[in-house]
C-alpha cells in the first residue's frame, strides 16, 4: 500500500458522517436549497461557491464576488475569500481549514470543524436570526466577592483535591504473602 493511500485512509477515518450531515443540513437550511444531486458533501463544497453563498447569507456583502466558472485558481480564490470573510466575522484563525484541505480533499474533517466554528460564531452576532450550528459558546460569568467571602473560601479544602481520611494500607493483601523460612 502506497504512503499516499495510507494517509488518505487515515484522514478518512477522522471524518464524522453525522457532523458532515448536520453541517450540510445547516447550509441547506440557510441557503434554502439542497446540495447538487449526485454530489457528495466534499464535492459540493470543493469549488467554494456554496461556502461563499453561505457567508453572504450570514453576513450580506461579506463576499463581494463569487467565481462560478473558470480555471482552478479562480475556484480556489472562492475558498480563500470565504476564509478571509469568516475570520473577519470572528472565527479564530486556528479554527480555519487550509485551502488544500478542501481543494485537494486532504482533510475534509477540518473543513467540517471550520463550519461548526462558524456556526458557533453566529451565536455571538445578535443580528443573525437564522439557525445555529453546534453548541452555544461559553460566556464570561465574572463574579465579585467581598473580602469576608474570599477569606472563608481560603479555609476550605475542596474534595476535588482529594482527601486522605481513612486512607491506610492496613488490610491490603495483594498477591501471595511473604513466606519466611527459618533454618536455612
TrEMBL record:
Protein name, entry field: Transgelin
Lineage of source species: Eukaryota, Metazoa, Ecdysozoa, Arthropoda, Hexapoda
Domain Calponin-homology (CH), chain residue ranges per copy: 17-122
Domain of life according to the entry: Eukaryota
Organism encoding this protein: Chironomus riparius
InterPro entries (UniProt xref): Calponin-like, Calponin_repeat, CH_dom, CH_dom_sf, SM22_calponin
Family: Belongs to the calponin family.
Gene Ontology annotations of biological process type: actin filament organization
Entries under SUPFAM superfamilies matching the protein: Calponin-homology domain, CH-domain
Coiled coil: none
Record GO cellular component, one term: actin cytoskeleton
A GO term, aspect molecular function: actin filament binding
Signal peptide (from-to): none
PANTHER family: CALPONIN, MUSCLE-SPECIFIC PROTEIN 20
Amino acid at each position: 500500500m502506497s504512503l499516499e493511500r495510507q494517509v488518505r485512509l487515515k484522514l478518512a477515518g477522522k471524518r464524522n458522517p453525522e457532523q458532515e450531515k448536520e453541517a450540510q443540513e445547516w447550509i441547506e437550511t440557510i441557503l434554502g436549497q439542497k446540495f447538487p444531486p449526485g454530489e457528495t458533501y466534499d464535492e459540493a463544497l470543493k469549488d467554494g461557491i456554496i461556502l461563499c453563498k453561505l457567508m453572504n447569507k450570514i453576513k450580506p456583502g461579506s463576499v463581494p464576488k463569487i467565481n462560478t466558472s473558470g480555471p482552478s485558481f479562480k475556484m480556489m480564490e472562492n475558498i480563500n475569500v470565504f476564509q478571509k470573510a469568516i475570520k473577519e466575522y470572528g472565527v479564530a484563525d486556528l479554527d480555519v481549514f487550509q485551502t488544500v484541505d478542501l481543494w485537494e480533499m486532504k482533510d475534509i474533517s477540518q473543513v467540517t470543524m471550520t463550519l461548526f466554528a462558524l456556526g458557533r460564531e453566529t451565536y455571538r452576532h445578535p443580528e443573525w436570526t437564522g439557525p445555529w450550528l453546534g453548541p452555544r459558546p461559553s460566556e464570561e460569568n465574572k463574579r465579585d466577592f467581598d473580602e469576608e467571602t474570599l477569606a472563608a473560601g481560603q479555609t476550605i479544602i475542596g474534595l476535588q483535591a482529594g482527601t486522605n481520611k481513612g486512607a491506610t494500607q492496613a488490610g491490603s493483601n495483594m498477591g501471595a504473602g511473604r513466606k519466611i523460612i527459618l533454618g536455612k
